[in-house]
Queue: 2 jobs
Job 1
Amino acid sequence: MKLRNQQGIVLAAMVMLMVVAAITVLGVSIFVIQRLEQTEVRLTRTAAINLAEAGINRALYDYRFRDLSGNGYVTLGQTNLTAQRFFVLGADAADLIMVNTAGAFFINAGVNYFLEGLTLQNATNSKAITIDRMIVTWDNSADLRRIVINGSTVWSGNDASPVDADIPNVTLNTVPSTVNIDNLRFQGNMTGSNINIVFVMTDGTQRSVDVFPASNQFDFWLSATGKTSVSNIWRTVRARYNAITGAVDNYAEISTQITP
Amino acid sequence: MTIMVTGIVAVPLSLTAVQLYESALLASDKTTAGLLAQNDLETVKNTAYDSVSSTTVADYAGSGLTLTRTVTWAQGSALTAESLKQVRVTLTRPGASNPLADQYTYLVRNVLYGS
């Protein structure tokens, strides 16, 4: 009887020990599984940002390669790096309008000052972009009299700064060719002035450009989202590329996903 | 009876504990591999474009893992004015085929980062 009691106690003790061990193993299991999941998430996030950077670099290669034999441009949309890894390039109209201010100069004819040497270009062959309005601002008392783009007078008046010029739509097409802003005619001395133009696009986006004095400015913005097909994790970078200096002078991660 | 019950419960419990230990090691190695892969990519990004090349390093940074960097021409070549390199960095355990970390990116020639 005594022996059976002792066996029962040992059995009960072993069962309790096993229960404790099982609970411990379960706890450790949860911890290890969570750690593995966190590691996978970290690796996937790193992969996504590297893919986004790959997207920007791919686009810049395309722009520069095409620029060797004509106007450079990028193609928006999805590119697969491997079967499971891809990036998506995107931009709105204001991102894509390129204003070359390097050759800006004034011609003086009596009381009139003609700002010339500005050119426009679409940075992509994926979609046409259209200018709806131009808001011109300058820092003296001269009046703006006329804006001529691509041989056509798109606005005329006699207004002091700032002028919100509601011009007939100017479309920069998908064969990225150069469009001339032939001149902005001012009445009054523009020597030493600073001129800014905000291009308001038909999609509602805006781009502010200091057009005078001349500067090595001829840039576009691009966003790239990197992603893998095995996860919902994505990361996006946004960059500004200056086609004159060949430099990416603005680069940051943003929280907007670019979709095809 | 006691030995039987102990055996029935202890064997799977022990196997699970061993599996857990291996999983914990895997998580640790994956974390290390991810950091080392990114470290190598950052090094590559700060290396002159023409000098970026393939390499294999055993026991990379004393981690016991093997780093393999594979550089291929995605566009153009060493002879073209413009080109694009694909860089793949993997970290593997010695003798293993599946990488613990596997990262890709592109590098572009003639583009400066920073104003």
Note: The first helix of chain A runs from residue 2 to 67.
Job 2
Amino acid sequence: MVSEKYIERMQELFDIKKVFSKPEALKGIRVLDISMIIFGPATADFLGEMGAEVIKVEMPGRGDVMRNVAPQGYYWKNVSPAFFAQNHNKFHIAVDLHNPEGREIIRRLAARSDVFIENYRPGTTERKWQLGYRQLREINPSIIYVSNTGYGQWGPYASRPSYDALAQAVSGMSLITGFEGRPPVKIGIYLGNYFGACLSAVAVLAALYWRDKTGKGQYIEHSQCEALIRAMEWTWAYIGLTGKRRRRIGNRDHVITFSDLFRCRDGFVVIEADTDDELVALLRATGNEHLYTNLWLRDDFSKEDKIKHIHDIISRWALKFTRSEIEEESNRFGFVCAPVQNARDHYENQHLRVRGSVWEMHDPVYGHMIEYGPAPKLSETPGRFIWAGKPVGFHNEYVLSSILGLDSAEIKALAERGIIGKWIERKGSKPPDDWYDEGVIY
Amino acid sequence: MEEKSWEDWIREEEGRVFEKPEALEDVTVIDISTSHAGAFICSTFLAEFGAKVIKIEPPGGDRGRRWSAESFYHRGCGLFYLSEGRNKYFITLNHNTPEGREILLSLVKKADVFIESFGPGYLDSMDLGFSKLSSINPSLIYVAYSKYGHYGPKASGNPRSYDASDQALSGLLYVTGEPEEGDKQLESAVPTRTGSWISSYAGGAWGTFSVISALHYRFLSGRGQMIDITNSEALMRFMEYTVLWYHVSGRIRERIGYYDLAVFPYTFIRVKDGYAFIAGYTDPNFKALCRIMEREDLIDDPRFSTMDARTQPENEEALHREIEKWSINYTSDEILEKVLSYKGEGIVVFGRVNEPQDTLKEPHWWERGTFRKFNDSHYGELILQMPPWKMTETPPRVKWACRPAGFHNELIYKRYLGFGSEKLRELRTKGII
């Protein structure tokens, strides 16, 4: 039995109400991010969660494509809801990278930054924009420079463009997912982007720790195909040693003894048992404890047949209960179970609210928001969402004056010549219709 | 400017892995987790960056060593450990004995990071929890993995979980798979789990992220801390706008097979020799796709002429049909050739849907060292995927594959605690190691 006192102590240690009274691990680290869509911006976002100051650079006018990547064409307050998940806590500036003076602004900001992130095709930042690693380290030797791509910076396919689902396809991840004989399954989220971004952020942190000790910066390259290849566990060793292909087995697990998806009264649950203890617990919960000796331990049945028999029993049993009833049984008896949760389940889940995994905040521009919050919980330096993504060029004045010392006449002149800019009268780019000037910092 | 092209320079720079130092070479990690894939992968990632990871198993070995596919074992080792045991030092210790407990405490005093997966309160009840360990080593970074976490209303539930459960809790399971089609009761038209143990990789990645953040903070402040991680929340952070969309519109995101809610075309299609992925969803990219397909008539079709029109579900279906009418006539290589030789405005992204065996045949990955045929002194020739990061100063690397339980007992107990062979024999007899 878990001690309630212990959980109370932990609750106190991690109390979400105290997050803003605690320090940030990456305070004082400045990230300059010229990337677009998800893979690069999410890398910056994750560092921003831990307290880094992220400057997001977009093209004046339309800005980042994700502003218009709208689920079923749905916009919220003039921007796609899909823009927010990888854009928190950032300062938004819009600078024309195609203009040499715009690139000069980026160079000056890079000279004052710790981390630089880009996700263009290999060589673009160096050859086209003079913003390559070899050029930036001349003006800032301790810079940590990250390039995110599909296929990497070099190699036969390096120049090929990529997206998340392309990485799912070419890595092999799609064809180890789903049922034999059916079309490949596209994973329901942009997994290669977010998982890849998390790994990119990990490499930045490792480089930062190295820099703490030595003062040296470095160049990091990360490919989303390679990220997914890395995450395919034993697939490669298995093929190497046996020469066999990895079968598609739907919702079962190649490794865990008993694991599958079951229909129940109000949706689906996953039920699993790997150890004998867990299997006994499962059989006991369904009133079939005798099957452990009468079936499971016998060697005159194949493992496949035994599992099928138990599977059929559980299929019938599960239909009688709700997801939460079965979850309670799993806790009471000691097998493993989880409800298949959807957006509403997450929204209404108090456990996730208490832990800040579903995060509530009031943004000065967008108002009340509920999003997936920082994943790991750190007792001393917890991650946090401070504000949401902003319209294009929202923080031009603040960033250019506070870091580069430009005065308002200089900023105005740059804007007049189109070197910097703001939002235009277009969905995705512009503020909500009812917004005046709340949240603007000068 | 520079003499060498960028590609040549970076390729050469990244080739000199073993001439260079490791980012975490001064960090010692104790991983006492048991059969928890997320915790295990966390310590693997740290070991790839150069941390000295001491993996403590009960005498006889961790149950996770038996994790394998199709009942295949290689020289007694399950494939999960074989693939993810890289660079670790494997020792055994029974921390349930008074002497074993003292040994654990002495190791913790010398460690920077401690990783466990016993569930909330278990180690604490043995006075080996965060409060005890941080009292003997105040700068310790203590990482706890469990199903629901160490606090919150559900924290007292069964702390064990496996990948499919964590995918279910995260919401990923709900949005992945084929939709139901009318009354057809297809076995495959259900929420579908992503094939690999992706929740554990998410948990491992966020664990590594937190540990190195905490190391950086500790470098500045001297202070350690506790980190509470669940694989399901780790994966949930990758669930994008799913909960925000519900908050602002009341819509629940459903599974939609190979379609996409927000961008189209961005989908799998049939080709002459299997399946492929194709995308051209912004206006210039969609036009490029139409030109490559020689279907410029689609560009001005009102169903497809804007990004928002293209993502209406019925239009996605119609456009998917139009693309397949064309793609089914060509092999994946033929289409790739058309896409790569297109020189007009806009970019089409295309690639074959590979079986893992096909991926292993692509020379690109072998040239880049994504895969390596690894001749391990204990396990012989293995194909392993290498660390996914390339870094010019501190490149991550693989030094060895897994080792049997207790393989490094002599080395570690001598190096850290000074135990000689006499002492080790005694501990072995008592069943402590």
Note: The first helix of chain A runs from residue 4 to 14.
